Amino acid sequence: MALDDDIIFLSRIATFRVLGREAMRILAISAQSVEMLGGEQLFEEGEPADGGYIVVSGAVELKSVAEGRTGSTVARSGTLIGETAMIVDTMRPATATMLERTTLLRIPRSVFLRTLEGEPGAAVSLRDMMQQRLKSTLDDLDIVTPLFVEPACEEETPRDN
């Protein structure tokens, strides 16, 4: 893709859109294109994560089996995989396997953090977006938590006869 096309593509993803055009330009120049075939594995659940991937074309199955949970989801064009890994040290929460020929853009954590350091306004915008997202998640948890909490049993107290 041409640089302008890469910037337009990145602008469709909320995490990058809030950064502004100059930060997206830096990321577009620094992103590494990765081509993979169906059946190939990008990373395995539990591996250290050092950056994020954006699905440009194709499909990626993300499958997790840790802690007794089993589930999978399919990431398609425009999906950002590993947003947290672009900011902090973390482990991959799922195994990523290509379902077909897939093109990805890899954004290493070092590149993302250097971009934020050079573009303080972008860093503030990202912080604000993540703060709002966290607040929304916590509000949602407040709504559903009572559905999973056992009602408190009142202790029986002896009665005086």
Percent of sequence in beta strands = 25-35%
Low-confidence stretches: none
- Say which CATH homologous superfamily of the domain at 33-110 is assigned: Jelly Rolls
Cα(first) to Cα(last) distance is 86 Å
Shape call? globular
Number of helices: 5
In total, the number of strands is 10
Q: What is the second-level CATH architecture of the domain at 33-110?
A: Sandwich
Major sheet characteristics: 4 strands, antiparallel
Helix/strand/pairing category: alpha+beta
Helix content percent band: 25-40%
What order do the strands of the largest sheet run in, or round the barrel if closed?
Answer: 1-10-4-7
The Rg value, from CA coordinates, equals: 21 Å
Can you give the mean pLDDT? 88
CATH topology of the domain at 33-110: Jelly Rolls
Using the coordinates above, name the CATH class of the domain at 33-110.
Mainly Beta
- Secondary-structure element sequence? HHHEEEEEEEEEEHH
Keywords:
single chain, 161 residues, alpha+beta, Jelly Rolls, four-stranded antiparallel beta sheet, 5 helices, 10 strands, 27% strand, globular
Structure, explained:
With 161 residues, this protein is α+β, with helices and mostly antiparallel strands. Among the domains are: 1-30, no CATH class; 33-110, Jelly Rolls (Sandwich). 39% of the residues lie in helices and 27% in strands. It has five helices and ten strands; from the N terminus they run αααββββββββββαα. The strands form three sheets. Strands 1-10-4-7 form a four-stranded antiparallel sheet. A hairpin with a 6-residue loop joins strand 5 and strand 6 (71-76). Helix 1 packs across helix 3 (21-30), helix 3 runs antiparallel to helix 4 and helix 4 (109-118) crosses helix 5 (120-148). The longest helix has 29 residues, at 120-148. The protein starts with a helix and ends in a 13-residue tail after the last helix.
